[in-house]
Amino acid sequence: MTRSYLVTLAFVVSGLILKMPFVQKLGSFEEISPSLFWLGWAVPLYVYEIIRGQRELRLKT
Amino acid sequence: MHSSKPFKLTTTDITPLLIWLAIAFITWTFMHSADHFLALTPEALGKYYNLRWILIAHITAGGGSLILGAIQFWPKLRNYYKKLHRVIGLFYLLAVIVSSSCAVVLAFTTAYHVNLPYAFSLQVWVSVWISSTLIAYYSALKRKFELHRQ
Question: Membrane-spanning regions, if any (chain B) (predicted)?
């Protein structure tokens, strides 16, 4: 459920990043949006997996 | 269907409630920015005109999934009202299925009007969305709650 919701939330994450003026200066919507779509879900999932891994490691030791 | 202790809001509930309110507000703002599509004219919809109902269903159900999903992470509600947790979970699943099915259609049609990387990003994104949601649902059905939480 956490993973599913992080991917759901990616719409808001990438949407908010795309609205930032300094991000808009990086290029046109067509140029920058694919990278930001990936960033919106892949990075939160990666961070979640690190946190989960650390938690599991702490429980084992 | 709930714990023997009476349900009472405490200071520990402030954080999940504030997060939910923030998500609900952002969702409302995002959905509001798509209001011009509701004119349903070719000028307002542009490349989405032929798939207007798919687009509207995608946005509406997507907004629903954002608001419903956030409730599921409120620990007290989950622990006190398991039946309510399941009902909200089913509505979340339904919202994701509707929104993601429409997203599949849009990612394989109108997205190509932008460019190939854009379409491909949306296709991968929707695949991850559908698979992660089905894994969460399937693990709940199999009563593998640790996997369900993940």
Answer: 12-31, 51-75, 87-112, 118-140
* Contact between chains at B150 and A30 (C-beta distance less than 8 A): no
For residue B39, give the DSSP letter: G
Domain boundaries, chain A: 2-60
Q: How many domains does chain B have?
A: 1
Substitution target in A4, A16, A39 with the highest count of B β-carbons within 10 Å is A4
Residue written as token pair 């609900």: B24
Minimum CA–CA partner of B144 in chain A: A1
Query: CA distances (Å), B18 to each of A4, B6, B26, in order?
Result: 21, 22, 12
pLDDT of residue B2: 53
Smallest Cα distance from A23 to chain B, Å? 17
B136 vs B138: CA distance, rounded Å: 6
Is B1 within the bounds of a domain?
A: no
What the block records as the tokens of A48 is 């979640």
Does some domain include residue B3?
A: no
Contact B30 A12 (CB under 8 A): yes
- For B35, which DSSP code? G
- Of the given ranges (A39-48, A50-59, B71-80), which has the lowest mean pLDDT? B71-80
Whether B86 maps to a domain, the answer reads: yes
Judged by CB atoms closer than 8 Å, whether chains meet at B69 and A52 is answered as no
What range defines the domain where residue B54 resides?
Answer: 11-149
Nearest residue in A to B140, CA atom:
A1
Q: Does the ipTM exceed 0.85?
A: yes
